[in-house]
Amino acid sequence: MCSCTYDGVVESNGRRRRATVKDVAVEAGVSRGTVSRVLNGQPYVSDEARKAIDAAIAKVGFVPNRAARSLVMQNTQAIGLIVHEPHSLFFEDPNIGSILLGANAALSEADYQLSFLIADSPRDIDRLARYLSGGLIDGVIIVSARVGDPITRAVAALDLPAAFVGHPRDIGDAAYVAIDNRGAAREITTRLAATGRSRIGMIASALDRDSGSDRLAGFVDALGNRFDPQLVERVPLYSYSDGQAGMRTLLDRAPDIDGVFASSDAVAAGAMDVLQAAGRVIPDDVGIVGFDDSSWALRCDPPLSTVHQPATELGRAAAQSVLRQLRGEDPDSGGRVLECPVVWRASA
Amino acid sequence: MCSCTYDGVVESNGRRRRATVKDVAVEAGVSRGTVSRVLNGQPYVSDEARKAIDAAIAKVGFVPNRAARSLVMQNTQAIGLIVHEPHSLFFEDPNIGSILLGANAALSEADYQLSFLIADSPRDIDRLARYLSGGLIDGVIIVSARVGDPITRAVAALDLPAAFVGHPRDIGDAAYVAIDNRGAAREITTRLAATGRSRIGMIASALDRDSGSDRLAGFVDALGNRFDPQLVERVPLYSYSDGQAGMRTLLDRAPDIDGVFASSDAVAAGAMDVLQAAGRVIPDDVGIVGFDDSSWALRCDPPLSTVHQPATELGRAAAQSVLRQLRGEDPDSGGRVLECPVVWRASA
DNA sequence: ATGAAAGCGCTAACAA
DNA sequence: TTGTTAGCGCTTTCAT
Fold first, then answer.
1. Could you tell me if A45 and A25 are in contact, meaning their C-beta atoms sit under 8 angstroms apart?
2. Contact status of A62 with chain B (Cβ, < 8 Å)
3. Which residue among B104, B115, B136 places its CB closest to the CB of A120?
4. Are A74-178+311-338 and A181-307 the same fold in CATH?
5. Distance in Å, alpha carbon of A66 to nearest chain B alpha carbon
6. Are A141 and A103 within 8 A, CB to CB?
7. Which of A7, A81, A115 to mutate to test the interface with B (most CBs of B within 10 A)?
8. A181-307 sits in which CATH class?
9. How confident is the model at residue A2 (pLDDT cuts 50, 70, 90)?
10. Distance from C-alpha of A291 to C-alpha of A261, rounded to nearest angstrom
11. Which end of chain B lies in a sparser environment, N or C, as judged by fewer CB atoms within 10 Å?
């Protein structure tokens, strides 16, 4: 139960008004400077004054005006998180929620407010650029940027403290937190091959992003000279329906396929449904693995072998990187790469 | 391609600094007042001055400081959207993304920034209350509040312009935008019954929220005296796994069940998987319907009959309500209830 | 049509 | 230890 009163102060004309430092000062019988010192936990305040001020704050229900403080401090204690995902797609991405939560947790500890900013239309991007440069935000976390992203450019132009989740190639030496998509893809493909498969294909998505192209590269790495380009099908999105479509094509082109690396769990789920509808038994006839370790993986039957993404940690680390930059600490010297273990289940 | 330069202004000591109205004024050879008038599109500015100022703005790369403007205007052109969902659960809710997008679209048109605020822990709620009262936000949209929610109380205490998505019973005459959960539940249950089912059960979730209890009430309405309490199973969440659990219990208790109203599509998907695993054929042996018309519905096999929620519209309408309140227009006289048509597919 | 000047609420430098 | 004062960058009277 919160006992806070947001009473404000009654003016001579009878209207209520939000209390200001001045009201507190008058009520406590001290100066505004002293009130400010208490507010900011600075030393050189007598116990007596501090007590009087605390009482006065409670009495008039004072809450500092952040805009005023921002104006003088040149900071806002708020950090933006931009997801540059087209349209409503970002809710299909199982990681974004966790990234958001991880970032929020880290910022919350440092008493920063997370502001989730949506870039849903060109107009949004414009407004966003203005917002970023308007000084309402001290730093920014950028998720799922592409190479050549206008948001990336705007942030660079503003040199706003920023951290990327993922690693587009054109962010210079900006901070980023990523996973080793290529290494993980290589590892899970190798394991899939080790289950005795000889005709392994891939449904590759989102090749315009580092995550997508890296997963494909890892797949190629793992197969080495056994790699057959015929067994790779490219689709636009990490989605269930693109998984279905990709699998249909692959099945047409190579009915003898006995292993599939799907670029995400959602893609794997779509592929699995198509395979099963075509009478294939998983994992007996075809082994299949995904990527993300999202809720899709457990909904599959049999449950999906996949790569676990530390999404919460990605968000948390990105937030911490921004906070560190804000404190003027070492700029993380580039980026951090987080572990993403393979989770082996029954689908392969 | 954006030609904006965020150059700022070079100081005597050589360091770059963000340009201010004063810099623009000097550059254009006018006063700050005139610059401000141009910035705010006010009349009584000569074409000559306006042209000089526009040029100066471009030259020095001026972007207004929102904090300063907020301080004097007492508003921020930003509106918060609070989702009070425990933990990471809010990304499981298929509607929240659309609500977010709808709200963003409406606010974007009015040149407001949407700030998505997360209430993930008690500490968050505290910080949130401070944030709301800190004047960084002009109004707020509140999603999935429960009765007695501390956020609701804080907002009421601040009398911040607010609109609820959904209709908790204790929000007084605050604005809200909702669907008629009870009516829709009644309608879809009636239709399910009309397919010739005689032993119809329900998996009821989230009874601590208006949406959950209303759906149950509608179910009871529809069945009238044919209602059998034995056929209702209560589970905590609108989730796939709670759907599975609920269906197992129901199947144990009433093996002759031939119709199921699941309180959400995710619940229905869980229930459907359990039914099929138990050898029931859908819709021949058991008819099943859901609620939400989310991506779950199409992922089911056979696809799910369900109630379409106009989630985007809910977000948009809530945003518009807040904007109207901000403009001092009629406070919407309580709430709006949006249509939610039944979508009939193959599962029943 | 425009300039000068007074604040919005807060912090910080300087005096005392 | 405390009070005084000068801004932060902007808008907005009130003169002119």
1. no
2. no
3. B104
4. yes
5. 5
6. yes
7. A115
8. alpha beta
9. very low
10. 9
11. N
CA-nearest of A112, A111, A176, A110 to A142 is: A176
β-strand pairing of B9-10 with B16-17: antiparallel
pLDDT in tens, B189-232: 999 999 999 999 999 999 988 899 999 999 999 999 999 999 99
Residues written for chain B: 348
The token pair at A26 is 């008058």
In chain B, which residues have their Cβ closer than 8 Å to the Cβ of A98?
Answer: 88, 91
Contact A121 B115 (CB under 8 A): no
| Model pTM score | 0.83
pLDDT tens digits, one per residue of A270-303: 999 999 999 999 999 999 999 999 988 988 889 9
B117:A115 CB<8 A: yes
CATH of A74-178+311-338 among 3.40.50.2300, 3.40.50.620, 3.50.50.60, 3.30.70.20: 3.40.50.2300
- Among B64, B70, B121, the residue with its CB nearest the CB of A67 is B70
Sequence-ordered list of residues with C-beta below 8 angstroms from that of A19, at least 6 positions apart, any chain: A7, A8, A9, A60, A61, A62, A63
Q: What span, in angstroms and rounded, lies between the C-alpha atoms of B320 and B104? A: 10
The domain defined by B3-64 folds into 434 Repressor (Amino-terminal Domain) (1.10.260)
Give the DSSP letter string of B236-303. Answer: SSSSHHHHHHHHHHHHHH-TT--EEEESSHHHHHHHHHHHHHTT--TTTT-EEE-SB--HHHHHSSSP
CB proximity under 8 Å: A 77-106 to B:
78, 87-88, 90-92, 94, 96-98, 100-101, 104-105
Neighbours of B230 (CB within 10 A): 12
C5 nearest neighbour residue (CA to C1'):
B33
